[in-house]
Structure formats: structure tokens, C-alpha cells
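Changelog note: in this version the structure field was regenerated for every chain. One regenerated record is shown below for reference.
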Amino acid sequence: MKFAGASLIIALIIVGSIRIAEAETGEGVEAKAEEEGVGLERIVVTNRRTSIGLGEVTENITLLDEEEIKNLPVRNLSEALSYIPGVYIESRQGFGRATAINIQGSTSNQVRVMIDGIPLNSLATGQIDLARFPIENVSRIEVLKGAASSIWGSGLGGVINVITKDTGKTSTPKASLTASFAEFRTKKESFDLSGKVACLGYYLFSSYMESGGKGPRDDVLEKKAFGKLSYDLKEKGRIIASFGYGDADVNSGEYPPDAMYKWQSQPYLNSYAKLSWEGGLDDTELKLDLKHFRHTIINKFYDSISSDTPSSRAEARDRLSQLSLNSATRIRKEDLLVIGADFDCDTLKTTYLFKAKNVKTQAPYVNYTLKLEPWDFNFGLRYDRNSEFGEQASPSLGFVYKFNNLHDTLVRATVSRAFNAPALLWKYYEQDLSGGLTTNPDIRPERAWVYEIGTESKPSDKFWIKFSLYRSDVSDAIALDWDALNMKNFEKFRRQGAELQFKLNIFQGLDFSASGAFNDVEDRATKETVRGGVGPRQSFDLGIEYKNKSGLSLSILSYYKRWNEPADSFSNDRKMLTDLKISQEFKNLALFLNIYNLSNSKYWQDYNFPYPERYFEGGMSLKW
């Protein structure tokens, strides 16, 4: 969409805002009250595997809810995460391309990623590309920055838990249809439907996206679907079943002239499912989960931009099955005791292995929160037994202190023992890997002591501030050995850094936010900075959000990231990029316009993967 089309949509939005000046509905007042409410009262589940208020959390957690996501110029989960301070997305050039996630100086395989608690990390690489999952069916995203091994196991750098929308609550079905068009011959449509029939609730979603790309061999085609059913058993609890599916053909575009290959195709197929029973007895909540995730990805490499016959091909299939048992008991009406266990059976089939590898894990855990006002103490312990990487015990201890004489102000701190299991292909493969990499059968899990401390305050309804410090001493840290060309254990790495966020309400409907973060990763043996794959050294984010009573909203989001890449990546990254979204909501219709890279900057962290220059996306959403 060029400037003329963009101008037309802006005009329609502004005219609509002027002509439609309706009073706030009851639902709008409720949403506004929730937005202006105390942030510490928001509920999270990721850090305890049961509902708990942010004011009781000893870890550094950031939430992104449905309303906040709606105001972002995003098309998938990876793009939404890129606006969260302390979370960094290594983009791979345009629509649908693979992305890697870093949190506070971690590598992408140190971040545990889940949808509704279903683990998604690949056995082959240890990571997952969240660009392959839809954003429209998401209720909220919970990001735990720092170690979470005492509750989730392998996850040294952090946890991202994506929580999908619940089933409908009304007998009258609710539906929405969204369509958008963007440059590079890009279009996307999505549809969802929810409701309830007697005791059966349902939620259904599907989307379709295709893009011609900026250059030759740069096209993308994605199809995604999700469904959830719930059945109310009255006093016996609730049964919930969900299923997700993604299928895509993704082409990389033309590689630089000096690259080994000229272009790459990377089709993928993923499916995930969960069957849950939730019930309760007196003050105890019980939950039984059966989870399944299957992921197939194919890499095809071509010697010529005009060739349709690959010169080499690789395929990997991951399959996870997990049984989770969890109980949460309120003791003395305030203390919380969580006991549970995870049982995993993972299978990897790939071109690089002559036969499939199976990994089995058993992991009981316990977590106890003791409330002694104004203190909250938390004690956690998990024991992982992994058939490939041995046994790991992960204790944790944390506290929250709330200042009674300071409005909504607290200090939180935690110390924990954490670990991270290596990617399976770093240990095994029988076929030659591209780039000449070699195997390391002696590779061991990374282990770390992690220390975090922070403060959070909302001294008035107009101002909120949060400050955090972290340090992680990683033994047997894993990185690339350039001499042996394999991933190996180093004696010790130290990750440390700081993060500052604040939000200011300038006047009703207008908010300003800013954040800054610093991350440093050092090899303690050589005293040298570790570069490549560990996120930015410095980052800054600025945001302006405006909403009025007539449904007009505007978001301007700017970000600066100084990536900690080696010199041979030729980074061109020390620039402030800005994205914009403007939308107008009517009674059942919304119009929106997204402008990406508003300053039209040439930007890349690796010169092989430049970010797209300025482009436009416009569309509409219809609800009934």
C-alpha cells in the first residue's frame, strides 16, 4: 500500500473519530478502571503454575494482555515480544521469517517457550520460532525474566508462556473477521468464533497470510488454526481440550553474492494439543494435563536463484508428549503450597541421525509461599532426571517486602540454582552438518547461580516505575569453539545487567513510557566479552499511546538496540527505529493502519538479514 492508500485510511479514521463521539459504555468504563488499577493486582500463573498476584511475585515478570496487544503493530507472537523491555528478537528479514529470542543476555536456547504450558523448544536446536504461531488468539503473554528451573526445569534465561483465549461465556455466538493488506503483495485474513451451548463452551480461530516478498524467492504462505472446547462438570470441575495447527512455505530471498547458497526454502508444519481437567476440594486446586507438540521443519538449499531443484536438503521432526500433575493448596487462607510433577517423552528424527533419539524426563517439584505481612517468602525445589543429561536439583529462595508507608511500593529479590540442557544435535549426529560443524559427545548441561533484585512503585495514578538488577554465574557455559568448530562447555560465563522502566500518564488518554536495559556477558577465564547470539548490549524503548472516548487510538513505538555481534557480522544497528499504529473503533467496526520503520532506516544486526525498509499495512476488523 503506497502513500495515497495510507492517506485515505488515515482520513477515514480521523473523520470517524470526529463524527462518532459516543459516551463510554459500561464495558469501556470497566476496562478503563482495570487499566488505571494497581498493576500489582494483576494475576499471573507462570511463576507458580497457579494464579497469584503480581504483588506476591519474587521474580521479574512482565505481562502483555489482550488490550495491550491490540494496540501494537504486530502480525505474530515474535513481533509482539519485540516491544517488551528486556526481550530481544533476532529478526530474519521480513514477513514470516525465522526469529530467535534472547532475554537479558541469554542465548535463544536458554529461553523456555510455551503455549498454555505446552513446551515448544526443539530437541534439535533447543529453541523455537514464535513467528510460526498466531497472535490473534492470545489472551495474554507472561514473560519471566531470569531462571525458572525450580518450577519449569531447563530454562536458564527465562520463560515465555503464551496463554490463549478462553472459550465463550454466552449462548449468543460472538465472531470477528479481520482483513489487512500491506506492501510486497501481502494480504492476511483471520476469523474467530466463540460461544457456549449448555455446559459446552467453544472458541475457534483460523488465519491465512501470503506475501510476495521484497525480492525474488522471497515469498511466504502461512495457514494457521486453533480450537478450544470446555465442558463444565459443575462441582466435579471442568474439562478443557485445545488444538493448534500451523502450515507454511517460507522462502528466504536472495543471499549475498559471497554466500555458499543463493537462496533457501524452509517449509514447516506444527501441531499442538492439550487435554486438561481442573477441579478442587476445599482449599485445594487440582489439575491434570496431557500435552502434545509436534514440529516438522525442512531446509532446502539452492545453488542458483533460478533453480527449483535443491542441492541439499535436511529435515527434522520433534515430538513431545507430557503428563503434568499439579495441586495448589491455600494454608491458613494465605500461604500457598504447590506440589506437582512433569513426565516427558521426547523424540527427534532428523536427516542428521541414522535413527531416532528418545529423551525421557521425570521431574517432581514443590513450591511454598509464606506470607508474614509485610513480607512474602517463597521456597522452591525441583528435581529433574533426564535420560540424556543426568540429574539436576534446582532450589530457589525469594522474598517480597511491601512498604506500608509508601503507596504500592515493594522490593523483591531471589536467588536460585538453574540449569539448561544442550540441544541434542550438539551432542549427536551421524551426517555432516553445513558449515563443517563437528559433534561433541561430552557436552554437559549449563549450571548457574542466579541473583536478582528489584523494586517497583506506583506512587500515584499518574506514574509507575520499575528497576531490576540481575547476575548469573554460569558454570559449564556453552558457546561455539571456533577452533574445533563445535559447541563446547567453557569454565564460567558471567551474565549481568540492569533494566529500568517507567510509565507516565500525561493527561487522560495520553501515556508516555520509556525503558532502558544493559546486558554484559563475560568469559571469566579470558575476561573477554562474549559476542553473538546473546542479545543487545544496550537497548532503549520509547512509547506514546493515545486513546479518546470516541474510539481513536494511536501508538508510536521507538526502539534502539546495540547488538552484541562479532565484527564479521558488519552490524548496522545503532539507530532508533519507529513503528506506528493508528486505529478507529466504531460500534462493530475498526479501521487500522500500521507503518513499520517510519524513518525508512537501513538496519541490520547481521548484513545477511536486513530489516525491511518503511512499509505500510492497512485493514479492518468487523465484530458481531
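Spot check on this record: Residues 1-38 have pLDDT under 50 and may be disordered. The chain has six helices and 33 strands.
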